[in-house]
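Budget justification note: compute hours in this period were largely spent on complex prediction jobs such as the one shown. Inputs:
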Amino acid sequence: MLRFEKRPQPSQVWTYLTPLLAVVITMIAGAALFAALGKDPVAAITTIFWEPLFGEFAFYYRPQLLIKGAPLVLIAIGLSLGFRAGIWNIGAEGQYIIGALTGAGVGLAFYPMESWVIFPLMVLAGALGGWIWAMIPAILKLRFGTNEILVSLMLVYVAEKLLAAMALGLMKNPEGMGFPGSRNLRQYESAHNAELITGSGMHWGVVAAMIAVIFAYILLNRHILGYHIRLTGQAPRAARFAGVNPARLVLFCLGTSGALAGLAGMFEVAGPAGQVSIDFNVGYGFTAIIVAFLGRLHPVGILLAGLLMALTYIGGELAQSNLGLPAAAIQLFQGMLLFFLLAVDVLTNYRIRLSRSEGVA
Amino acid sequence: MDFGSINPVLLLASLMVAATPILLAALGELVVERAGVLNLGVEGMMIIGAICGFAVAVNTGSPVLGFVAAAGGGALLSLLFALLTQFALANQVASGLALTLFGLGLSALLGQGYVGIKPPPVGKLDIPLLGDIPVLGPILFSHDLMVYFGLGLVLAIWAMLKYTRAGLVLRAVGENHDAAHALGYKVVRIRVLAILFGGACAGLGGAYISLIRVPQWTEGMTAGAGWIALALVVFASWKAGRVLLGAWIFGGVTVLQLNLQAAGIAIPVEYLSMSPYLITILVLVIMSADRSRAPASLGRIFHASQ
Amino acid sequence: MNLTKLLATAAVALGLATTAMAQDKTKVGFIYVGPIGDGGWTYEHNKGRLAVEAHFGDKVETVYQESVPEGADAERAITQMALQGADLIFTTSFGYMEPTLAVAGKFPNVKFEHATGFKTAPNLATYSARFYEGRAVQGHIAGKMTKSNIVGYIASFPIPEVIRGINSAYIHAKKVNPDVEFKIIWAYTWFDPAKEADAATALIEQGADVILQHTDSTAPQAAAEKADNVITFGQASDMGEYAPMPRVSSIIDNWAPYYIARTQAVMDDTWESVQTWDGIGAGMVGIGEISSAVPEAIKAEALALKAALADGSDHPFTGPLKKQDGSDWLGDGETADDGTLLGMNFYVEGITGDIPN
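Corresponding output:
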């Protein structure tokens, strides 16, 4: 009988090995899947993992990894702080939408005035929008003891409806021939979150994501607040004795993750997406939850996980158009990758023992 | 503007139909959450149920077999979630999201050969006498079997949770898994069974969409119903009876807004469809003053040697 | 040399490379907004792609990517096809307008074609179909066939294309049946089977015995089939599996001739940026077979109308017509100009209710 025995400390070796192991297992299972669909499995796997990085057109795909990965990393960093402390914000998708709406709203309000202040104001508005949306579950939790998982999730739906209402109503482009969707912020210089160096993929959102990674790292390792976050997650009772104020921690964690998600939305709407449209949100907020866990809630891990996720998206698209793989197969492949990553994590925290007695697992 | 063109009897009857898929899925999720497990993969399990049910019903010509297969398919997918969260001890939120992604992809692959096919029809259960009662007849007594199955399930789960030992054990596991373990209950086994039940119910809900409500197969056809089911469980504050009420409200808002539009009444559609979620948050707040609240162990990982 | 130049040069060099390669095989790319199995919009575009393959055989290679979200992801998908050596790329949804324009600027040697949009470039053409001509035929049949005099209309988004369709159908229904009334539901979706089914049911329960739809799934057909004596029309695709009842006819998006012609133009090096807006006459809008549920006399009239629209002797919007608010729009015998039609944001006289927003 297999038995899991909790390690006194998470295994260092397995912490680094498990993600690699998961990727390898996924490649094998994925190859089987692609072969079953009648495609060359080796070609499919190399297209997904190799082409975007080192293929003929890598000069285009590498920057795209940053564009696709930045919002994931930015949101996941914020979420990981709360997750470490046992504060579960799963409504980042909603905060992302609201950040995009408030950010774009400020930009559109100034149209067509050109001024350097507009973009910084949009950044502020985006962060503020996400922050406010995250404050709702935070305050309800503190005031009434409601579950933040559920409130933040409900607010995602509300935000989606609000987005549709805005794209069809208030923010609709008056010169858009009646089609839903706002003006294109990419054609409005003061509001455009342009690439800082053309062709590099580096826009302000990527910069913000990198800053967030560094700050989160410092916060968690060098700062008392980071210590409190970790302590609360590991031993809530001990944390209270150590003088941690749980209310303040809830406000900080939810607020930070909301603000970062809002920022991600704002950078996306002003840059790669360009406009507020009905289906502006493509699930970054939910995918970021997965990224946070894949990165083991560690800032550097999240950075890598975000890039890996981005790679499967971009490589998956390549496999679709080059090999004619259906979109569904790619989705399935991503699902498998996540399953395996989550499953092998058990090796980090538990030892597997064979035992004869009736096991507990 | 013409309210008169809305026939309230027919409106209520179609509300019963619109509510059934989310009712079934939410009932399953209710049991799962009562056991202390949060499975966010409802959407994925529903769509797998939709295609499994559809494929089997088309191939065998029997909708009943279709529904059986849908329950099986949903349960099989949820088994993945059970393995991850109960044996590999992975995080439930992340596993549930992965399950949805996986389910949507798998269903689209499975369904490639089933686009544009019509499933065998599911007969309405026109109950003689009762079905002829004016007003109540069409609302209550002239539906397909699954509508009644859903209502029966509400009753069964309510009774199970309230009066049976199994229900008591389930709730104990959900409230405090360590204490339940100390009392000698098999926490993991109970949770796995609850998860499988939840998967089967979600599968039935999905198949109701593909076999009865729409009826056809198209990729992504559940279109977010699984997420609504999740909201519904919260709205119902983990009580079976309130799930039914919630399903009518959530399903009713959609049907009502379409009917109001058809009657030429201008309504802000987006704001109206926001309302069930806002109501749910309100319910959460009100509930916190009440004794009914989320199962205490919801979403937490259980490991016996802790 | 800065990065911009480097990238531009690389793109141009690739562009040249692809033209060189094009001599043996022309590569045609398609970007789809939905899955190819949606049974409607994307399904028909994909049929057009298959027709291109069937027509040219070994001389072409086609690639496609399905379910591409509109926005940033679309831009990458289109760029990727251009990088991979596509000579001609069709982007098949309105939401791809800005991304297509952006990519077209970067690949001057690749030809782009954007469906249903209005922005062009030297290497970016637009194409769309005059679906409202098909709506006129539907309106005629609907007006003749309805017994309750209530026609239900499932609309998607309040955009000119959809409003045009409603107006066209209404005008022709009214012409043959002065008592006809339209009930319109805005579903705010192109594709949501459950919601479309609910919308159809709501309309039927309120007395509609004809359902017209401007959403893409076959769910309304299935809903109508459950209710007896309700007729529907296929949308985008023939939806022939629901014939002869409830589906009595359909509007079919027939992109194949256009896709073949444009591919040929690229092969012959005669491709030009044009704004194509073709209707029944050019074969871009097909009228699916009128089923046996429609009496012969009505069928003959509908076919006559179709023929008149095809040869240009009739126009769906022929005056005298007034706008909903009672103001004059078209004088006697006057026909609507394309500019007004493309930006149509008003109902014609007689339709009740307001266009949202």
